[in-house]
Amino acid sequence: MGEEKLTTLFRIDCGKIYLQEFTVEDAESIYNISNQPEIEKFLPDWKSTKEQRINWVVNYEIPENKAFLHAVRITTNIDDHILKLGICKKTTNEFIGWCCTGIKDELPAPNREIMYAVSSEYHNNGYQRKRQKDWLTICSKKRK
Predict the structure, then answer these.
(1) How many CA atoms lie within 13 A of 23 on its CB side?
(2) What DSSP character marks residue 108?
(3) Where in the numbering of this chain does the N-acetyltransferase domain appear (predicted)?
(4) Are 83 and 105 in contact (CB under 8 A)?
């Protein structure tokens, strides 16, 4: 047994949901949601095996999030950093989707792509609209 490391995760309160940086524990939920037909149709690059998803979360997505958050703390220039946040129900802490922002080659700088996915179980509950509104508010504040 090792000593547990206490880590404060970046979190944005959005009322009934919150957005939070990915953790290793989120990998299975991301895997399950990304393989739903409704999600796979629009985000085919997110489809993976469970092992691939764990690898991506641990070795790419968590470090990319840390780099983005570090860049925000030390400068206003986030360059080509990527931020991927889980969407979680506040009442149960259940991971129900994710939202991301990053540079997209097809958009002129400094424009960034904003994308999201919500589990099919939670479609038509207003979570996407609420998350989208809060996310855009936060992104616009960071640019000022």
Answers:
(1) 15
(2) P
(3) 17-129
(4) no
What's the domain range around 78? 11-143
Query: What confidence tens digit (pLDDT) does each residue in 43-81 have?
Result: 999 999 999 999 999 999 999 999 999 998 898 788 889
Report the CATH number at residue 51: 3.40.630.30
Quote the pTM value: 0.81
Residue 56 lies in a domain: yes
Contact status, residue 40 vs residue 28, Cβ threshold 8 Å: no
Residues of the chain with pLDDT under 50: 1-5, 143-144
| Strand ranges, E, within 6-122 | 11-14, 17-21, 83-89, 95-102, 113-118
Position 90 in a domain = yes
Instruction: Give the SS3 label for residue 17.
Output: strand
Answer yes or no: is 38 within a domain. yes
Residue 7 sits at φ, ψ, to 5 deg, of -125, 135
3-state DSSP of 40-53: HHHCHHHCCCHHHH
Number of domains in the chain: 1
With pLDDT > 70 as the criterion, what percentage of the chain qualifies?
A: 81
Structure tokens at 133: 């509104």
Look up tokens 């939670």; give the residue.
122
